[in-house]
Amino acid sequence: MSEFLRVERAGAVATIWIDRQPKMNTMTVAMRNEFPAIFGSLDADAAVRVVIVRGAGGRAFSAGGDVSEFLTLAPADLELWGDTLTSAERCRKPVIAAIDGYTMGAGLELAVACDFRIATLRSEFAFPEVRLGMIPGSGGTQRAMRLVGMTRAKLFMMTGRRVSAAEAEAWGLITQAVPDDKLDAAVGALAAELAERAPLALRTLKMVLNRGAEAPLETALELERKAYAWLRSTHDYAEGVTSFLEKRPPKYTGR
Questions:
Q1: What is the mean pLDDT of residues 83-106?
Q2: What predicted TM-score, i.e. pTM, was given to this entire model?
Q3: Pick from 8, 35, 186, 181: which is nearest to 107 by CA?
Q4: What Rg value do the Cα atoms of the chain yield, rounded?
Q5: Domains and CATH numbers, the chain
Q6: In terms of Cα–Cα distance, which of 180, 182, 160 is closest to 59?
Q7: In this structure, how many other beta carbons lie within 10 angstroms of the beta carbon of residue 75?
Q8: Can you tell me the distance from the alpha carbon of 231 to that of 226, in angstroms, rounded to the nearest whole number?
């Protein structure tokens, strides 16, 4: 792992830190290329139930990609680099982006690939790529458009404007905006709640929601029905029903 990315574990929660503070946590190509292995490792770790992504320093989640590298890359180098940030979405476990400060360009693309985005009120969001003669190329156009709708997406991306956390929350770009001193509490509460849920149900639900959103309704409903039926074969399904009937807390094992 590079000097700019690190993973910390606390119980069932793992936190990926982006820590390149002198550069506002901007991400180099080398950093981006590490995300698939990091998320893959956490996905495979049965002890981890929730993943959090954070930017160190309190000034930025990530101000984007390292622009100084852009002209060193050939078109063939860029065609697939956006897939590295999709690893947050591919991770089968819940992923929370804990946002404090500037969240721009590739940083915002990483955030919208997460399942939840909790941000401080001082945070700001933008896709400034159009101001540099380019467009978001790591999933930003499609994921953000699906979150905020076409009308707002065009205004947001075609102008490169910044939006506040309050506006981002109203648009649906982020899950929740919280006071600047309440981020840890809000993220911790959500992570703790998710960690108590049945891991296989969460994993299955994430897949059904993500894949069903773009499928025809009948196809999505069939996916839902088959996913539900498959869960019936799991220990956690039986444990959930049994614990409810016995009026006790469930003990989910991920089996």
A1: 96
A2: 0.95
A3: 35
A4: 19
A5: 5-195 (3.90.226.10), 199-245 (1.10.12.10)
A6: 180
A7: 6
A8: 9
